[in-house]
Amino acid sequence: SNGIPLDSCYLHHNRAYNCNGFTEIGAVNGELISDCVFAYNEYINDRHQMFAWFELTGGAGPDYWPCTMRRVRFENNTIVTLLPTPVFGEGDKILGWVGNMTDTTSVIFRNNIVYSYKYKNIKYGTGMYSSSHNIYYSVNGEPSFNNITLGPGDTIVNPNFVTLDIMNIGTYDLHLQSN
What we know:
Oligomer: single chain
Shape: globular
Distance between the termini: 43 Å
Number of strands: 20
Number of helices: 0
Helix content: under 10%
Largest sheet: 6 strands, parallel
Order of helices and strands: EEEEEEEEEEEEEEEEEEEE
């Protein structure tokens, strides 16, 4: 947001490949960012960067752009990260924020697939977000994630992609197969 409240944006059907994160949300003067939807996106990465980073009111720092978030939804996204160790900083999380997440409806994370070589944390920051009906899977056989409380319908299971060559991340078909 550039000094103007952001309301009802819809970012959908994008493919982000080997980039330094999918999205970063912030504002100039703490503006409200509300009712935005990030849906049906593919984030395929072997750089081990966060999917989404938020700069919320209540945080501080030299390069900090605080905002207030309400009902920002991440739905039906596929997140694939395969590098075993982070290359840049705190890249071992899916969602991250600085500041205070004061309401579980600020960020809603539902119906997503997270397929990771070794994500250590689903979230990084103070407070909680709403989570439901997500699939989480760690390809190295480590089924547990730190800092995660499974929400209604969340599960840790292999999504069984048609093709995903972990040695050649460019070879993939992320359609699901039946087990």
